[in-house]
Amino acid sequence: MIPHTALVVDDEPDIRELLQLTLGRMNIATHAAPNLAEARALLGQQHFDLCLTDMRLPDGNGIELIAYIQRKAPETPVAVITAHGNMESAVAALKAGAFDFVSKPVDLHVLRNLIASALKLATPAQPETQNLLGDSAPMQTIRATIAKLARSQAPVYISGESGSGKELAARLIHGQGPRRDAPFIAVNCGAIPEQLLESEFFGHKKGSFTGAVADKPGLFQAAQGGTLFLDEVADLPLYMQVKLLRAIQEKAARPVGAQKEIPVDVRILSATHKDLGALVKQGSFRQDLYYRINVIELHVPALRERAEDIPLLAGHLLQRLATQSGTPPATLTPRASEALCRYPFPGNVRELENILERALTLHEGRVIDVQDLRLPDHAPRQGQEKLPLEDELDSIEKQRITKALEQTRYNKTAAAKLLGITFRALRYRLKKLGLD
Question: How many CA atoms lie within 13 A of 135 on its CB side?
């Protein structure tokens, strides 16, 4: 078996020797260069599977080498070695296209994890079972961007409206990258009670507080080797933002009640539908954390910005709903499809799914026409901004759901089956109609 090859670039002989020894024990053949000029010469002579470079070099810096490799050998991942605590350099390197970074003094455990992840990039990812559907220009761009982001370990901030598909984008970044065989842990930061945040994120030791009857690992430990997706990150209180920033920068977490931090190897992806930049200006979100998680921003477009994708999405959702219910898939009439394309979808893809699910629930046939969709009218009326919501439809839904619950003695699973909808859809309706 031909070993992997790596290029080590550092002007300190001791660092070069340490890196070469570490790589050698991992069966990786290494070549070393003390400066930028010799590194470029070696890159011109052969292909490397990985490059490790110091940030400060006698005749330049690591950013210049990253840029050179991006032009000449973009498939070669580059990791930079930065001075301890110099997060500005690390972030600059990640923005320039570095795969990852490691700080001096080099932690060999962290270094080995980094190298293992980088070498996995040579192994193609399996095709995704889920994807961001659509042939529109915005979706073609976002899929290409995701493929590029998957090759990096840089933190990514995913922006976009509620229901636009931010978590799916995060899952695709994870699934196409070198961490794909490790866990993907998604957490809604706004759904955890404030008094439990630290324990949930970092774990706790037995006896550290009332109710801590056993050691418990946190989300960082659960995502070890993989990806931690922080959804609605803007909802974190300021004190927790400080602790999160430290865990990200130090690549370590301290469980509640523990004396020592434990190393954690996770990639951070985050998202929110709020304007983080505005929250930073208001003082409700820390600027240092904002710059740390927003190394690269990925914007997921609203559904109304890619209306040409709606027929394809609707067909996919109708097929999925049919599979869930065990019935033949329904179809849309041309008029219904046109009406969906004109509708602005303030709730995005999630609202499209709810509209189709509601139509299937209230309509007996397998062909859905425009009146079956019961779309809210968003045309402005004189004297008011928009029409009121569908009170009559809500009343019908309430009556049918209440009757089903009464028939099943308030067994929600049985009621959902009786109504011909999923348990998740019933929970959504109960919450929406104030019946929960």
Answer: 3
Asked if 224 and 262 count as a contact pair (C-beta separation under 8 A), the reply is: no
C-alpha 378 chain-centroid distance: 32
Please state the length of the chain: 436
Q: How far is CA 88 from CA 79, 92, 250, 287, 294, in A?
A: 15, 6, 14, 13, 13
Determine how many CB atoms are found less than 10 A away from the CB of residue 241. Answer: 19
Q: What is the pLDDT of residues 53-69, one digit of tens each?
A: 999 999 999 999 999 99
- Three-state SS at 340: helix
pLDDT at residue 126 in the model: 58
Question: From the CA atom positions of the chain, what is the Rg in Å?
Answer: 26
Output the CA angle 154-159-164, nearest 5 degrees: 125
* DSSP states of 189-223: GGGS-GGGHHHHHH-B-TTSSTT--S-B--HHHHT
The answer to whether residues 43 and 73 touch, using CB atoms and an 8 Å cutoff, is yes
**Measured distance CA(263)–CA(184) in Å, rounded:** 18
Q: From 46, 67, 66, select the one nearest 54 (Cα to Cα).
A: 66
Residue 29 reports pLDDT greater than 90: yes
Select the more confidently predicted residue: 170 or 119: 170
The region of weakest confidence among 54-68, 262-276, 350-364 is 350-364
